[in-house]
TrEMBL record:
Entry keyword Oxidoreductase: yes
SUPFAM superfamilies in UniProt: Cupredoxins
UniProt biased composition (Gly residues): 183-194
Entry protein name: Copper-containing nitrite reductase
Reactions the enzyme catalyzes: nitric oxide + Fe(III)-[cytochrome c] + H2O = Fe(II)-[cytochrome c] + nitrite + 2 H(+)
């Protein structure tokens, strides 16, 4: 079973356990000993099953089972055993011989086991990892209080003892809630390295960490002005959509440069009332150019402007997007692509940059909601630069040709092998460059296995499809069952150079992703949490320049979290404990699927304050964001925000 299936199985067994104990209790209370005995037997089996499912889940790591092992199983096991011993013999006797109905003790102990199972389930779903003393107190108090209330109703008359016990349960709960809510919020996590040394830090404001103002020798200045404004855009089908745009188009103008150029982008805001910034996704710009409102700059408000400058030192496929209310801004259209070509003669053939986006309910490739058609001479090299600008993973297939994945997140893959009838799934924010020589027959790029959508390539000289149907005829190809490429086993290990020795880490951080009750900017909600907290209460990860940093990202929940660190490229060490065996995998965004554990590493060589967040931007507004902070770097802005 996959780790995700184990999570679901464990939740199902936990639910069954609670239902069986509560059912047995209710049947006993209703004086139906036969049903109660049967349900008690079910409950015992389910409780044992729960121990089994927790044991199986523990194989994925302690993070997945901590509260279950330390609290839930002992609580359910203890109350369940008591109930079985107290109620079991009476129920059996009553069921067999029609003896006296099971008494108060039987009913109350059965309810106690049911409430314990229910409270344990709530503890997993609402609190999760890490288990805290406060959370444990609240859980026990909730089960205890419910039992006492039940006792009050089942027993003939309330006693003073029960009143006192009730008061005690309530007090425990309140204390626990207090302890749970009063953790040291927002303090930095030094990841096992030296803590912040204030004498050491010189207090460099992040706003002073700006890019150079000249290109490298031999480079040129690429000057762009992007004006953010609302507009009605017309898609290729003629459909009109209200959007937030750069220069009136969605996606915004494609930015290109050659390695060594200076990229200079003047951002102006005409009328985006919520404000706008530019973030260079995957591009490791100086921190002051990173476009994070409230941290590296103030958001640009209508009438305002901000000029970004950085050298095009990384080649490959990247994208830009607003980082101000990014959940809404990106969805509404404030994004575009950034492609940096290596120096030397331009590549021959067809080179397409294809940002894919869910725009107003339809999938658009660039500005096309109907398949666009391109032509290439048979044998000519084709490069398709796929960019997933959405919040969730996107699956692509290529029919009519074999291909290679030559770059991922802008970084070249070493020794990419030829693939056929294989799907590629891009994380939210991720990019794959697919390359192949144009065959003598048509090629279709499909998104989500939709044979009627995507992009069409035709060999030069072939007859175009009938003008009525125009491009985008249904390929008729069913790609739904094509397997998915596993990048951790694709390509060949690099020969020296790239393969840094990833050992002796200066800092070691763990991020456990889940859902739970937490304060998001002071508002209690069922948040997307990191180590049980939500933004801005998640401790910042503290590093010093040149530290070698390892980060373990664990997904305890049932949603995919595309993890994205600003300003750094991470190298993947392992996924689910299995090391990367193919090409070195250098990414800026990686999908941590339910139950998965990723270990990644990077060298801290880009001083600043950086966002480290889930790139499902809805999850950011629900709290799933934190900071990576270089010691001594400060921000003059209040309330550093990712949302
Ligand atoms: Cu693509 Cu913090 O963003
Ligand atoms: Cu997420």
């Amino acid at each position: 079973m996959t780790p995700a299936q184990l999570i679901v199985l464990d939740l199902a067994v936990a639910t069954l356990t609670a239902a069986a104990w509560l059912g047995a209790a209710a049947a006993a209370a209703a004086r139906r000993p036969r049903a109660a005995a049967a349900l008690l037997a079910t409950a015992l089996v389910a409780t044992l099953g729960r121990a089994g499912s927790v044991a199986a889940l523990s194989g994925s790591g302690w993070w997945f089972v901590q509260e279950k092992v330390t609290l839930v199983l002992p609580m359910v096991g203890g109350t369940g055993l008591t109930a079985a011993l107290v109620a079991g013999p009476r129920l059996i006797r009553a069921a067999r011989h029609g003896g006296p109905a099971p008494g108060t003790a039987a009913v109350v102990t059965l309810f106690a086991a049911g409430y314990a199972a229910l409270a344990g389930l709530a503890c997993t779903v609402l609190a999760g990892y890490p288990a805290t003393a406060g959370g444990a107190l609240v859980t026990v108090a909730a089960a205890g209080a419910a039992t006492l209330v039940t006792w009050r109703f089942v027993a003939p008359a309330p006693s003073a003892l029960r009143l006192w016990a009730g008061a005690a349960a309530l007090a425990t709960g309140i204390t626990g809630a207090g302890v749970a809510g009063a953790g040291p919020a927002g303090a930095a996590d030094a990841g096992g390295g030296p803590p912040s040394d204030h004498a050491h830090g010189h207090g460099v404001p992040v706003t002073s960490l700006r890019g150079p103002t000249t290109p490298e020798p031999g480079g040129t200045v690429r000057r762009y002005t992007l004006t953010a404004r609302t507009a009605t855009v017309t898609l290729s089908s003629g459909r009109r959509v209200e959007a937030w745009t750069f220069d009136g188009t969605v996606p915004g103008p494609p930015l290109t440069a050659t390695e060594g150029d200076l990229v200079e982008v003047r951002l102006r805001n005409a009328d985006i009332a919520r404000g706008v910034t530019l973030h260079w996704h995957g591009y490791d710009v100086p921190a002051g150019e990173d476009g994070v409102p409230g941290m590296t700059q103030e958001a640009v408000t209508p009438g305002g402007e901000f000029t970004y400058r950085f050298r095009a030192e990384q080649t490959g496929t990247y994208w830009y997007h607003t980082h101000q209310v990014s959940d809404i801004g990106v969805r509404m259209g404030l994004y575009g692509t950034l492609v940096v070509h290596p120096r030397g003669p331009a590549a021959e053939g067809l080179d397409l940059t294809l940002p894919v986006h869910a725009f107003d309910g339809t999938t658009v490739f660039g500005g096309h909601d109907r398949p666009a058609e391109h032509r290439a001479a048979p044998g000519a090299p084709v490069r398709l630069r796929l960019v997933n600008t959405d919040n969730t993973p996107r699956r692509f297939t290529l029919t009519g040709t074999a291909f290679r994945v030559v770059a991922v997140d802008g970084r070249d893959v070493s020794g990419p092998g030829e693939l056929e009838r294989t799907a590629v799934t891009l994380a939210a924010g991720g990019r794959y460059d697919l390359a192949f020589p144009m065959p003598a027959r048509p090629v279709a790029l499909l998104a989500g296995d939709n044979p009627a959508g995507g992009v069409r390539l035709r060999p030069d000289g072939s007859t175009p499809p009938s003008p009525v149907r125009n491009s985008g005829e249904d390929t008729g190809e069913d790609t739904g069952d094509w397997p998915e490429l596993d990048l951790t086993r694709y390509g060949t290990p690099a020969a020296g150079g790239d393969a840094a020795p990833w050992t002796a880490f200066d800092r070691d951080f763990t991020l456990v992703l889940d859902r739970g009750l937490a304060l998001v900017d002071g508002v209690p909600m069922y948040a997307q949490t990191v180590n049980g907290r939500a933004f801005p209460a998640i401790p910042a990860q503290l590093v010093r320049e040149n530290d070698l940093v390892r980060v373990t990202v664990v997904n305890r929940g049932l949603e995919v979290h595309p993890w994205h660190l600003h300003g750094h490229t991470v190298t993947v060490l392992s996924r689910n404990g299995r090391p990367v065996t193919g090409s070195p995998l250098r990414l800026d965004t990686f999908d941590v699927r339910p139950g998965e554990v990723w270990q990644v590493a990077f060298r801290a060589t880009n001083p600043g304050l950086w966002m480290n967040h889930c790139h499902n931007l809805t999850h950011v507004t629900q709290g799933m964001a934190l900071h990576l902070a270089y010691e001594g770097v400060t921000t003059p802005f209040e309330g550093a925000h990712g949302g």
